[in-house]
Amino acid sequence: MEGVNIKTFLAHLERIDRSLLALMSKFRMEEREGRIFLYTEDKTLKETVERFLKERFGDGFKDRVLVRLEGLEAEKTQEKRETESEGLNKRYSFSNFIVGEGNRLAYEVAYEVAQNPGKIYNPLFIYGGVGLGKTHLLQAIGNACAERGYRVVYKSANDFSEDMVEAIKVGKVKEFRNTYRNIDLLLLDDVQFLSGKNRTQIEFFNIFNHMFLNEKQIVLASDRHPKELKDISDRLISRFEGGVVVEVCMDELTKLEIIKRKLCELKIEVQDRIVESLMKHTSDNVRDIEGTLRGIKLKGVEHLKKNAVSSSSLEKIKLYTAVHFGIKPEELVGSSRSRKVNRARHIAFYLCRKLTDASLIEIARAFNRSDHSTVIYGIKKIEEERRKDRKLNYIISFLEKHIGERL
Protein backbone atom coordinates (compact mmCIF):
# COMPACT_ATOMS: atom_id res chain seq x y z
CA MET A 1 0.00 0.00 0.00
CA GLU A 2 3.06 2.31 -0.16
CA GLY A 3 2.34 5.59 -1.97
CA VAL A 4 -1.35 4.74 -2.38
CA ASN A 5 -3.69 7.01 -4.32
CA ILE A 6 -7.40 6.76 -5.06
CA LYS A 7 -6.97 5.47 -8.61
CA THR A 8 -4.57 2.64 -7.70
CA PHE A 9 -6.57 1.79 -4.57
CA LEU A 10 -9.83 1.35 -6.52
CA ALA A 11 -8.06 -0.65 -9.23
CA HIS A 12 -6.63 -2.93 -6.56
CA LEU A 13 -10.08 -3.46 -5.03
CA GLU A 14 -11.54 -4.27 -8.43
CA ARG A 15 -9.00 -7.07 -8.82
CA ILE A 16 -9.39 -8.64 -5.37
CA ASP A 17 -12.82 -7.72 -3.92
CA ARG A 18 -15.60 -6.15 -6.00
CA SER A 19 -18.03 -6.24 -3.07
CA LEU A 20 -15.74 -3.90 -1.16
CA LEU A 21 -15.29 -1.79 -4.29
CA ALA A 22 -19.08 -1.35 -4.50
CA LEU A 23 -19.14 0.15 -1.00
CA MET A 24 -16.64 2.83 -2.00
CA SER A 25 -19.36 4.71 -3.92
CA LYS A 26 -20.97 5.50 -0.58
CA PHE A 27 -17.92 7.37 0.67
CA ARG A 28 -16.56 10.81 0.03
CA MET A 29 -12.86 10.31 -0.77
CA GLU A 30 -9.88 12.57 -0.26
CA GLU A 31 -6.24 11.96 -1.08
CA ARG A 32 -3.56 13.64 1.06
CA GLU A 33 0.14 12.98 1.48
CA GLY A 34 0.07 9.47 0.03
CA ARG A 35 -2.96 8.46 2.11
CA ILE A 36 -6.65 8.06 1.35
CA PHE A 37 -9.38 9.38 3.64
CA LEU A 38 -12.85 7.82 3.36
CA TYR A 39 -15.68 9.92 4.86
CA THR A 40 -19.19 8.82 5.77
CA GLU A 41 -21.96 9.85 8.16
CA ASP A 42 -23.00 6.20 8.64
CA LYS A 43 -21.27 4.72 11.67
CA THR A 44 -22.29 1.15 10.76
CA LEU A 45 -20.90 1.54 7.24
CA LYS A 46 -17.67 2.93 8.66
CA GLU A 47 -17.21 -0.05 10.99
CA THR A 48 -18.13 -2.53 8.24
CA VAL A 49 -15.59 -1.15 5.78
CA GLU A 50 -12.89 -0.93 8.44
CA ARG A 51 -13.47 -4.60 9.23
CA PHE A 52 -13.34 -5.55 5.53
CA LEU A 53 -10.14 -3.57 5.01
CA LYS A 54 -8.50 -5.25 7.98
CA GLU A 55 -9.51 -8.68 6.72
CA ARG A 56 -8.14 -7.98 3.24
CA PHE A 57 -5.00 -6.03 4.11
CA GLY A 58 -4.33 -6.65 7.81
CA ASP A 59 -3.15 -3.77 10.03
CA GLY A 60 -1.06 -2.37 7.17
CA PHE A 61 -4.01 -0.43 5.80
CA LYS A 62 -4.30 1.76 8.90
CA ASP A 63 -1.51 4.14 7.93
CA ARG A 64 -2.62 4.49 4.29
CA VAL A 65 -6.42 4.19 4.15
CA LEU A 66 -8.28 5.93 6.97
CA VAL A 67 -12.04 5.80 7.48
CA ARG A 68 -13.56 8.87 9.14
CA LEU A 69 -17.01 9.85 10.37
CA GLU A 70 -18.37 13.27 9.49
CA GLY A 71 -21.54 15.18 10.32
CA LEU A 72 -23.40 14.34 13.56
CA GLU A 73 -21.63 11.02 14.08
CA ALA A 74 -18.29 12.78 13.82
CA GLU A 75 -19.24 15.11 16.64
CA LYS A 76 -19.98 12.12 18.86
CA THR A 77 -16.50 10.72 18.22
CA GLN A 78 -14.62 14.01 18.59
CA GLU A 79 -13.15 12.98 21.94
CA LYS A 80 -11.89 9.72 20.44
CA ARG A 81 -10.28 11.51 17.49
CA GLU A 82 -8.53 13.94 19.83
CA THR A 83 -6.72 11.04 21.49
CA GLU A 84 -4.82 10.60 18.22
CA SER A 85 -3.08 13.87 19.01
CA GLU A 86 -1.09 14.83 22.10
CA GLY A 87 -0.41 18.00 24.05
CA LEU A 88 -2.94 20.26 22.32
CA ASN A 89 -4.94 22.93 24.15
CA LYS A 90 -8.20 23.92 22.45
CA ARG A 91 -7.89 27.40 23.94
CA TYR A 92 -5.44 28.40 21.22
CA SER A 93 -6.62 29.09 17.68
CA PHE A 94 -5.85 31.41 14.78
CA SER A 95 -9.13 33.24 15.39
CA ASN A 96 -8.12 34.47 18.86
CA PHE A 97 -4.51 35.34 18.01
CA ILE A 98 -4.12 39.12 17.96
CA VAL A 99 -2.24 40.12 14.81
CA GLY A 100 -0.06 43.21 14.56
CA GLU A 101 2.90 44.41 12.54
CA GLY A 102 5.38 42.63 14.81
CA ASN A 103 3.83 39.20 14.41
CA ARG A 104 1.94 39.40 11.11
CA LEU A 105 4.49 37.47 9.03
CA ALA A 106 4.75 34.69 11.63
CA TYR A 107 0.96 34.46 11.77
CA GLU A 108 0.55 34.30 7.99
CA VAL A 109 3.27 31.66 7.56
CA ALA A 110 1.84 29.59 10.43
CA TYR A 111 -1.62 29.78 8.88
CA GLU A 112 -0.27 28.59 5.52
CA VAL A 113 1.47 25.67 7.23
CA ALA A 114 -1.81 24.67 8.90
CA GLN A 115 -3.54 24.63 5.51
CA ASN A 116 -0.80 22.63 3.76
CA PRO A 117 1.22 20.69 6.36
CA GLY A 118 4.38 19.15 5.02
CA LYS A 119 4.07 20.86 1.64
CA ILE A 120 5.49 24.35 2.19
CA TYR A 121 7.64 26.02 4.84
CA ASN A 122 8.99 22.77 6.29
CA PRO A 123 10.44 23.06 8.82
CA LEU A 124 8.98 26.27 10.22
CA PHE A 125 11.12 27.88 12.94
CA ILE A 126 9.46 30.62 15.04
CA TYR A 127 11.57 32.64 17.45
CA GLY A 128 11.08 35.61 19.78
CA GLY A 129 11.03 36.71 23.41
CA VAL A 130 9.04 35.16 26.22
CA GLY A 131 5.26 35.61 26.11
CA LEU A 132 4.97 36.97 22.57
CA GLY A 133 2.75 34.22 21.11
CA LYS A 134 5.08 31.47 19.87
CA THR A 135 3.28 28.74 21.78
CA HIS A 136 -0.09 30.15 20.68
CA LEU A 137 0.90 29.82 17.03
CA LEU A 138 2.24 26.27 17.49
CA GLN A 139 -0.97 25.22 19.22
CA ALA A 140 -3.14 26.95 16.60
CA ILE A 141 -1.38 25.02 13.84
CA GLY A 142 -1.82 21.78 15.77
CA ASN A 143 -5.51 22.33 16.52
CA ALA A 144 -6.31 23.29 12.92
CA CYS A 145 -4.61 20.14 11.61
CA ALA A 146 -6.03 17.82 14.27
CA GLU A 147 -9.54 18.98 13.33
CA ARG A 148 -8.92 17.63 9.84
CA GLY A 149 -7.72 14.23 11.02
CA TYR A 150 -3.96 14.76 11.15
CA ARG A 151 -2.07 13.11 13.98
CA VAL A 152 -0.30 15.84 15.95
CA VAL A 153 2.13 15.91 18.87
CA TYR A 154 3.01 19.08 20.78
CA LYS A 155 5.97 18.82 23.17
CA SER A 156 8.42 21.09 24.90
CA ALA A 157 12.05 20.18 24.27
CA ASN A 158 12.40 19.34 27.97
CA ASP A 159 9.46 16.91 27.89
CA PHE A 160 10.80 15.34 24.70
CA SER A 161 14.16 14.78 26.40
CA GLU A 162 12.62 13.37 29.59
CA ASP A 163 10.43 10.98 27.57
CA MET A 164 13.50 9.78 25.69
CA VAL A 165 15.52 9.23 28.89
CA GLU A 166 12.64 7.28 30.42
CA ALA A 167 12.33 5.16 27.26
CA ILE A 168 16.03 4.28 27.51
CA LYS A 169 15.65 3.33 31.18
CA VAL A 170 12.77 0.93 30.54
CA GLY A 171 14.11 -0.42 27.25
CA LYS A 172 11.44 1.11 25.03
CA VAL A 173 13.52 3.26 22.69
CA LYS A 174 11.98 1.62 19.63
CA GLU A 175 8.46 2.46 20.84
CA PHE A 176 9.60 6.03 21.56
CA ARG A 177 10.91 6.43 18.01
CA ASN A 178 7.78 4.88 16.48
CA THR A 179 5.58 7.35 18.36
CA TYR A 180 7.10 10.18 16.34
CA ARG A 181 7.50 8.28 13.09
CA ASN A 182 3.78 7.56 12.98
CA ILE A 183 2.53 11.14 13.39
CA ASP A 184 1.83 13.76 10.74
CA LEU A 185 2.88 16.90 12.59
CA LEU A 186 5.46 17.57 15.32
CA LEU A 187 5.36 20.84 17.26
CA LEU A 188 8.48 21.26 19.43
CA ASP A 189 8.52 24.24 21.80
CA ASP A 190 11.46 25.82 23.68
CA VAL A 191 14.06 24.31 21.35
CA GLN A 192 16.79 26.20 23.21
CA PHE A 193 16.52 23.58 25.97
CA LEU A 194 18.05 20.97 23.67
CA SER A 195 21.31 22.73 24.48
CA GLY A 196 23.98 20.35 25.77
CA LYS A 197 21.73 17.27 25.57
CA ASN A 198 23.74 15.32 23.03
CA ARG A 199 21.81 12.03 23.11
CA THR A 200 18.50 13.89 22.83
CA GLN A 201 19.87 15.82 19.85
CA ILE A 202 20.86 12.58 18.11
CA GLU A 203 17.40 11.07 18.57
CA PHE A 204 15.70 14.27 17.48
CA PHE A 205 17.94 14.54 14.41
CA ASN A 206 16.91 11.04 13.28
CA ILE A 207 13.21 11.73 13.92
CA PHE A 208 13.51 15.06 12.12
CA ASN A 209 15.07 13.44 9.06
CA HIS A 210 12.45 10.68 8.92
CA MET A 211 9.57 13.15 9.12
CA PHE A 212 11.09 15.57 6.65
CA LEU A 213 11.82 12.90 4.05
CA ASN A 214 8.23 11.67 4.38
CA GLU A 215 6.86 15.22 3.94
CA LYS A 216 5.56 15.40 7.49
CA GLN A 217 5.42 18.86 9.01
CA ILE A 218 7.83 20.04 11.72
CA VAL A 219 7.30 23.33 13.56
CA LEU A 220 9.84 24.59 16.08
CA ALA A 221 9.84 27.50 18.52
CA SER A 222 12.68 29.09 20.45
CA ASP A 223 13.50 32.26 22.34
CA ARG A 224 16.31 32.99 19.89
CA HIS A 225 17.34 32.66 16.23
CA PRO A 226 18.90 29.29 15.26
CA LYS A 227 22.27 31.02 14.75
CA GLU A 228 22.24 32.11 18.41
CA LEU A 229 21.52 28.65 19.87
CA LYS A 230 24.41 27.33 21.96
CA ASP A 231 25.63 23.74 22.41
CA ILE A 232 23.41 22.38 19.65
CA SER A 233 25.03 20.42 16.82
CA ASP A 234 25.75 22.19 13.55
CA ARG A 235 23.77 19.61 11.59
CA LEU A 236 20.63 20.36 13.64
CA ILE A 237 21.14 24.12 13.25
CA SER A 238 21.45 23.54 9.51
CA ARG A 239 18.13 21.64 9.51
CA PHE A 240 16.44 24.42 11.50
CA GLU A 241 17.55 27.02 8.97
CA GLY A 242 16.66 24.79 6.00
CA GLY A 243 13.01 25.84 5.98
CA VAL A 244 11.59 29.22 6.99
CA VAL A 245 12.70 31.21 10.05
CA VAL A 246 10.31 33.94 11.27
CA GLU A 247 10.35 36.24 14.29
CA VAL A 248 7.52 37.31 16.57
CA CYS A 249 7.91 40.64 18.33
CA MET A 250 5.68 43.23 19.94
CA ASP A 251 4.87 46.69 18.61
CA GLU A 252 2.93 49.43 20.40
CA LEU A 253 -0.31 49.06 18.43
CA THR A 254 -0.39 45.28 18.91
CA LYS A 255 0.22 45.66 22.65
CA LEU A 256 -2.57 48.23 22.85
CA GLU A 257 -4.97 45.89 21.05
CA ILE A 258 -4.00 43.00 23.32
CA ILE A 259 -4.63 45.07 26.46
CA LYS A 260 -8.06 46.18 25.23
CA ARG A 261 -9.01 42.65 24.16
CA LYS A 262 -7.92 41.16 27.50
CA LEU A 263 -9.82 43.82 29.45
CA CYS A 264 -12.97 42.90 27.56
CA GLU A 265 -12.40 39.18 28.11
CA LEU A 266 -12.13 39.75 31.88
CA LYS A 267 -15.13 42.12 31.78
CA ILE A 268 -13.11 45.04 33.10
CA GLU A 269 -14.20 48.47 31.93
CA VAL A 270 -11.83 49.80 29.28
CA GLN A 271 -10.77 53.08 30.88
CA ASP A 272 -8.11 55.28 29.32
CA ARG A 273 -6.14 55.63 32.56
CA ILE A 274 -5.99 51.86 33.05
CA VAL A 275 -4.94 51.28 29.43
CA GLU A 276 -2.27 53.98 29.61
CA SER A 277 -0.88 52.65 32.88
CA LEU A 278 -0.77 49.10 31.53
CA MET A 279 1.01 50.29 28.39
CA LYS A 280 3.59 52.06 30.51
CA HIS A 281 4.15 49.65 33.37
CA THR A 282 3.91 46.20 31.83
CA SER A 283 6.48 44.47 29.67
CA ASP A 284 5.85 43.20 26.14
CA ASN A 285 5.23 39.75 27.64
CA VAL A 286 1.55 38.82 27.10
CA ARG A 287 1.60 36.59 30.19
CA ASP A 288 2.83 39.55 32.24
CA ILE A 289 -0.07 41.63 30.91
CA GLU A 290 -2.57 38.84 31.65
CA GLY A 291 -1.20 38.42 35.20
CA THR A 292 -1.53 42.13 35.92
CA LEU A 293 -5.09 42.16 34.56
CA ARG A 294 -6.08 39.21 36.72
CA GLY A 295 -4.72 41.14 39.71
CA ILE A 296 -6.91 44.10 38.78
CA LYS A 297 -9.90 41.78 38.44
CA LEU A 298 -9.34 40.33 41.92
CA LYS A 299 -7.96 43.32 43.84
CA GLY A 300 -9.15 46.38 41.96
CA VAL A 301 -7.26 49.20 40.29
CA GLU A 302 -5.03 49.65 43.38
CA HIS A 303 -3.26 46.47 42.32
CA LEU A 304 -2.21 48.22 39.12
CA LYS A 305 -0.51 50.98 41.10
CA LYS A 306 1.29 48.42 43.26
CA ASN A 307 2.36 46.46 40.22
CA ALA A 308 3.61 49.61 38.53
CA VAL A 309 5.77 50.42 41.58
CA SER A 310 7.11 46.85 41.63
CA SER A 311 7.95 46.88 37.91
CA SER A 312 9.66 50.25 38.23
CA SER A 313 11.75 48.99 41.15
CA LEU A 314 12.87 45.92 39.26
CA GLU A 315 14.00 48.08 36.34
CA LYS A 316 16.00 50.32 38.68
CA ILE A 317 17.70 47.33 40.30
CA LYS A 318 18.68 45.96 36.89
CA LEU A 319 20.08 49.35 35.87
CA TYR A 320 22.10 50.00 39.05
CA THR A 321 23.46 46.45 39.18
CA ALA A 322 24.56 46.62 35.55
CA VAL A 323 26.28 49.99 36.07
CA HIS A 324 28.10 48.72 39.17
CA PHE A 325 29.52 45.70 37.32
CA GLY A 326 30.32 47.63 34.14
CA ILE A 327 27.93 45.80 31.82
CA LYS A 328 24.88 46.80 29.80
CA PRO A 329 21.39 46.28 31.32
CA GLU A 330 20.46 44.33 28.16
CA GLU A 331 23.13 41.74 29.03
CA LEU A 332 21.34 40.91 32.29
CA VAL A 333 18.20 39.91 30.40
CA GLY A 334 20.09 38.34 27.49
CA SER A 335 21.48 34.85 26.97
CA SER A 336 25.13 35.55 27.85
CA ARG A 337 26.63 32.91 30.15
CA SER A 338 29.94 34.65 30.79
CA ARG A 339 31.08 34.45 34.41
CA LYS A 340 30.90 38.22 34.86
CA VAL A 341 27.38 38.60 33.47
CA ASN A 342 26.11 35.48 35.22
CA ARG A 343 27.38 36.68 38.61
CA ALA A 344 25.82 40.13 38.11
CA ARG A 345 22.54 38.53 37.03
CA HIS A 346 22.39 36.33 40.12
CA ILE A 347 23.11 39.31 42.38
CA ALA A 348 20.34 41.25 40.63
CA PHE A 349 17.94 38.33 41.25
CA TYR A 350 18.91 38.43 44.92
CA LEU A 351 18.45 42.20 45.23
CA CYS A 352 15.07 42.10 43.48
CA ARG A 353 13.88 39.48 45.95
CA LYS A 354 15.37 41.34 48.95
CA LEU A 355 14.33 44.90 48.11
CA THR A 356 10.88 44.44 46.50
CA ASP A 357 7.71 42.45 47.09
CA ALA A 358 7.85 41.05 43.54
CA SER A 359 7.17 37.33 43.20
CA LEU A 360 9.71 34.89 41.78
CA ILE A 361 7.63 34.67 38.62
CA GLU A 362 7.59 38.47 38.25
CA ILE A 363 11.37 38.60 38.70
CA ALA A 364 11.82 35.85 36.10
CA ARG A 365 9.69 37.80 33.62
CA ALA A 366 11.63 41.00 34.29
CA PHE A 367 14.81 39.17 33.27
CA ASN A 368 13.21 37.49 30.25
CA ARG A 369 13.38 34.04 31.88
CA SER A 370 10.66 31.52 31.09
CA ASP A 371 11.22 29.50 34.26
CA HIS A 372 11.44 30.99 37.79
CA SER A 373 13.58 28.01 38.90
CA THR A 374 16.48 29.93 37.31
CA VAL A 375 15.80 32.79 39.74
CA ILE A 376 15.61 30.43 42.72
CA TYR A 377 18.95 28.86 41.75
CA GLY A 378 20.62 32.28 41.38
CA ILE A 379 19.34 33.55 44.74
CA LYS A 380 20.41 30.41 46.62
CA LYS A 381 23.84 30.54 45.01
CA ILE A 382 24.38 34.14 46.13
CA GLU A 383 23.12 33.38 49.65
CA GLU A 384 25.61 30.52 49.97
CA GLU A 385 28.55 32.46 48.50
CA ARG A 386 27.78 35.53 50.59
CA ARG A 387 28.27 33.53 53.79
CA LYS A 388 31.70 32.33 52.64
CA ASP A 389 33.04 35.33 50.69
CA ARG A 390 33.59 38.50 52.77
CA LYS A 391 34.29 40.61 49.69
CA LEU A 392 31.05 39.52 48.01
CA ASN A 393 29.16 40.15 51.25
CA TYR A 394 30.51 43.70 51.35
CA ILE A 395 29.55 44.35 47.70
CA ILE A 396 25.97 43.13 48.22
CA SER A 397 25.58 45.10 51.47
CA PHE A 398 26.75 48.22 49.63
CA LEU A 399 24.32 47.62 46.74
CA GLU A 400 21.43 46.92 49.12
CA LYS A 401 21.97 50.25 50.87
CA HIS A 402 22.78 52.23 47.72
CA ILE A 403 19.87 50.91 45.63
CA GLY A 404 17.41 50.71 48.55
CA GLU A 405 17.72 54.46 49.14
CA ARG A 406 16.71 55.13 45.53
CA LEU A 407 13.65 52.88 45.23
Automatic annotation (TrEMBL):
Keyword Transcription regulation on entry: no
GO biological process: DNA replication initiation; regulation of DNA replication
Keyword set, alphabetical order: ATP-binding, Cytoplasm, DNA replication, DNA-binding, Lipid-binding, Nucleotide-binding
One Gene Ontology MF term: ATP binding
InterPro entries for this protein: AAA+_ATPase, Chromosome_initiator_DnaA, Chromosome_initiator_DnaA-like, DnaA_C, DnaA_dom, P-loop_NTPase, Trp_repressor/repl_initiator
Region (Domain I, interacts with DnaA modulators): 1-82
GO CC, one annotated term: cytoplasm
Region span, Domain IV, binds dsDNA: 301-407
Binding site for ATP: 131, 133-135
Domain AAA+ ATPase: 120-243
Chromosomal replication initiator DnaA C-terminal domain: residues covered: 313-382
Signal peptide limits: none
Subcellular location: Cytoplasm
Pfam family for this entry, one: Bac_DnaA
Family the UniProt entry places it in: Belongs to the DnaA family.
Annotated domain remarks: Domain I is involved in oligomerization and binding regulators, domain II is flexibile and of varying length in different bacteria, domain III forms the AAA+ region, while domain IV binds dsDNA.
Function field: Plays an essential role in the initiation and regulation of chromosomal replication. ATP-DnaA binds to the origin of replication (oriC) to initiate formation of the DNA replication initiation complex once per cell cycle. Binds the DnaA box (a 9 base pair repeat at the origin) and separates the double-stranded (ds)DNA. Forms a right-handed helical filament on oriC DNA; dsDNA binds to the exterior of the filament while single-stranded (ss)DNA is stabiized in the filament's interior.
Quaternary assembly: Oligomerizes as a right-handed, spiral filament on DNA at oriC.
Protein known as: Chromosomal replication initiator protein DnaA
Native source species: Hydrogenivirga caldilitoris
Originating gene: dnaA
